[in-house]
Design brief:
205 residues; alpha+beta; Aminopeptidase; 8-stranded mixed beta sheet; 8 strands; globular
Length: 205
């Protein structure tokens, strides 16, 4: 059964803050994406319709907000508190999407992180925070992450968090202009009774 309204929500762990994406984030988001264009391009979702393109920033936020209102997505920005900024700065994006209620109680999670902050535990911490929220606050049962076999950094994230490798999906998603193979990783609530974030933070110490 679906709970009441599930959005907006803010999640925090130390200096890391997951918060809703907003229209007024356009300038900062665009700057971060621009300097990460080469880093993110090989893994960027694309439109398989001939002549089709991706939505602009405002269209993207409007679509994500609509999905959140319908209870099918949680569109977070990954932000980080720093000594040099008065407010947490954008260091990535994480979206829980394709939320299915009823007998499935599952969702899919995707993310990207600023190359300048990669390797500092931000991605696994953010994934653990969002997964725990979905399992503990929303009552979802399964979280799935689909990753291209060539995407070494993302493969290390799911490995660190203990997501189960469920196998190969040929030509699964349209990425960077072509249908691309993916590997599927998943975790169920029963596998992390103590919480994924608790397990992840314990493993780091």
């Amino acid at each position: 059964m679906r709970p009441g309204p599930i959005w907006p929500v803010k999640l925090e762990c130390g200096d890391l803050v997951l918060r809703p994406i907003r229209y007024r984030d356009k300038k900062e988001w665009t700057q971060v994406r621009a300097r990460n264009n080469e880093w993110l391009a090989p893994w960027e979702a694309s439109n398989p319709i001939p002549g089709g393109g991706l939505p602009d920033y405002r269209q993207m936020v409007r679509s994500l907000k609509a999905q959140a209102a319908q209870g099918t997505a949680l569109p977070f920005l990954i932000t980080e508190r720093t000594p040099s900024a008065s407010a947490p700065v954008i260091v990535g994006q994480l979206t829980v999407s394709s939320i299915v209620w009823g007998s499935a109680m599952m969702a899919t999670l995707g993310y990207w992180v600023d190359r300048e902050r990669a390797g500092h535990g931000i991605a696994p911490t953010a994934v653990a925070m969002a997964t725990d929220h979905c399992f503990q606050a929303l009552g979802l049962h399964r979280m799935e992450i689909n990753i291209r076999p060539e995407n070494g950094p993302s493969l290390r994230v799911v490995e660190k968090l203990g997501f189960r490798d469920e196998g190969y999906r040929p030509r699964y998603l349209h990425i960077n202009g072509e249908w691309a193979d993916h590997r599927t990783f998943a975790l169920t609530a029963e596998e992390v009774p103590e919480g994924l974030l608790t397990r992840w933070l314990a493993s780091r110490t």
